Amino acid sequence: MxxxxxxxxxxxxxxxxxxxCLVGPDxxxxxxxxxxxxxxxxxxxxxxxxxxxxxxxxxxxxxxDPLLGELERRAFAGSRDLAIAExxxxxxxxxxxxxxxxxxxxxxxxxxxxxxxxxxxxxETRESYDVAFDASWEIDLFGGLRRGVEAASADLAAxxxxxxxxxxxxxxxxxxxxxxxxxxxxxxxxxxxNVRAQSETLELTRWRSEAGLTTSLDVAQxxxxxxxxxxxxxxxxxxxxxxxxRIAVLAGEPPGALDELLGPAAPVPAPPAxxxxxxxxxxxxxxxxxxxxxxxxxxxxxxxxxxxxxAFPRLTLxxxxxxDALAASNLFSAASYSSSVFGNLTQVVxxxxxxxxxxxxxxAVRDAALAELEATLLEALEETENALVAFAEEQQRRDxxxxxxxxxxLAAQLSRxxxxxxxxxxxxxxxxxxxxxxxxxxxxASEGEVASNLARLYKALGGGWQSEATP
Length: 471
Known about the structure:
Helix content: 55-70%
Structural class: alpha+beta
Distance between the termini: 50 Å
Strand content: 5-15%
Number of helices: 11
Mean pLDDT: 87
CATH architecture of the largest domain: Up-down Bundle
Order of helices and strands: HEHHHEEHHHEHHEEHH
Number of domains: 2
CATH class of the largest domain: Mainly Alpha
CATH topology of the largest domain: Outer membrane efflux proteins (OEP)
Shape: elongated
């Protein structure tokens, strides 16, 4: 008992001496190693110049499509995912406010009045009146409450990062859905053009067959080629309908609500000639997933202090002011006044290692949060590197397909003309028409993929939001 009393006195004396000391480790942001430059060559369309914040915040404007800008605004206003993230942010703010309130005294007031009738030889009625004001305040001797506020503030910052991440994801997904829709519209138009051209070829083979200049084999082959091209249309239209529905849902509307707005075909948005991507360290600093992981680590570090504070004494001050009387007329007299002040000091004596286990468990949670931050950093670098390569390589593929489509168009026209003149067999026409449709379809798909890869790149770079101060 003497040993415990001596230890308690020593801890209380230390608390009073250090005043505002905090138990537990102070958080220090870990180093975020990042290469000085991107691993892959940036190519002609990309530069290591630092992008300015306004262009990152609304990067879709660089595509020069006003409808896409309108759809992005609708998505930010109507997205249910964004509404969920905003609600969770309000929850985090409220929880931090509640945690902060724990540093302040809490008080309550009460009033009561009663009348009791006592049956005796001489019945009597007794009255009682009572008014009380009570207050209590836990003195944060070792900083457990302040560490709790520190953790709640970090949780709030993590929720803000989550909101930014949702906004970035919505902006990228809307741009991808829109560019997919425009690419599908183009692919459908090209397929219909090829159906018309191949129908003319079929009529040519029928004429030549009826004239005895060729066999019915050419007619059958021409028809098979035509139907094969026509068979691509239902799948393309199905994908187009899905893209249109996705755009509507992203904007907070039911599928089909924006069909009239999206209906008129338009070109696939073209990326700007040059895009500033900055350096890896700057990209990591912008990404909300990295910020969230770092703030989670800060929160779990602060909670170690909350756990450690459980091992130290807790001092609570309580006070009461009251008025009580047996008659209402005497309630506010000097004789009815009473007051009290108490100090309550508590210390865990025997918990069979529960507090130490809680501290060890929280330290393990902190270590897991650190590993999660390190994994997030590596995944962020991987995603951005892959996005840079995909954007640059798809542009080269698009350019090659454009040259191939131009050559295929010329070859198809020449083969039809020469077949009509009897200079080549029908196999040359079939091969040329198939090559034309394939190259045109691949080119349209690649144009959409270039624009989609741009959206993925900006998402990887952390573009699509503007920072706001935490209230």
